[in-house]
Amino acid sequence: MVRTLGTAIAAGILDSIDKNTVKRLIATVGTESSRRRLENALSKHSSRLEVLLHQEYLRAIREADVALLAVKPVKREEVFGSPGVREALRSKLLISIMAGISTKELTRLALGDQHAPDDQGPLQVVRAMPNMAAKIRQAVTLYTADLDTLSKDNLEIASWIFNQVGHTQHVAESTFDISAVLVGCAGSLLLLAVDGLLDAAVAEGVKRSEAQNMVVNSAIGMMKLVPAGDHPSVLREKIASPGGCSKGLCWS
Q: Where does NADP(+) bind (predicted)?
């Protein structure tokens, strides 16, 4: 998932209409095969893209204005503990999409046992969580930060980055984890229901491709009724009328 999201975010940034917003993007990957894959996927942006192996991520941080971490949480101590990384991050905007890692923990990781120099001000940290729909520019990305210390410019930068792959929503850190479940895991539950409906339709003789078209487009249409003002429970009751087949399915 980290690799998929990282690629989607990079593509969204480089595909931005305003080519002058990001003049250069440096990505780091774990293997040579991953480097070739990313370079091929983003080949049309080769003049603005540089892909390095993970051994060179210190160089990438030093040369960047914004550092976006899309690594697995289990690797966080290894990344931040590498020589020179904390010093390189001091003057950067640090954005993390590591699951479960709070802004307080990010600050601890970035500063270690040291303290940021007074002339550089507080560390600029943003925690974010997009979902898999970033691949088609339809993600919902949650982000949170200490608005008392994060500059307005850096808040706008973080918002701009994730707006390139869909929509953004700022949430309080206190509700970030449960909100991340909604945008990250709710899709899995919905897909589980879709998968079950497809299997049932195929078992009754409907071609899977036809069933998928019916179910997916029906779901998209129904979901659009909710932001239009209809409460989900009201919609469900309208569809599942007494004595109807939908009512039987809902309670079977």
A: 28, 70-73
**Pairing verdict, β 139-144 and 124-129:** antiparallel
Q: Is there a binding annotation on residue 4? A: no
Considering the domain architecture, whether residues 23 and 148 belong to the same structural domain is answered as yes
Give the per-residue pLDDT at 166: 94
**122 is an annotated ligand-binding site residue:** no
Q: Is 71 annotated as a binding residue?
A: yes
The DSSP symbol for 100 reads T
Domain membership of residue 212 (yes or no) is yes
Last residue of a domain, one of 150, 170, 190: 170
Give per-10-residue mean pLDDT for the chain (252 aa): 79 82 90 94 93 92 93 90 91 92 92 61 89 91 93 94 95 94 84 92 95 92 82 78 58 50
Q: Which of 58, 63, 65, 60 is nearest to 157 (CA)?
A: 65
How many domains does the chain contain in total?
2
Residues 194 and 144 in one domain: no
In a domain, 42, yes or no: yes
Distance between CA atoms of 169 and 144, rounded to whole angstroms?
A: 9
Does 128 appear as a known binding residue?
A: no
Calculate the alpha carbon distances from 90 to 23, 44, 114 in Å. Answer: 22, 33, 11
Check the annotation: does 70 bind a ligand.
yes
Of 39, 44, 40, nearest to 15 (Cα)?
Answer: 44
d(CA 230, CA 77): 46
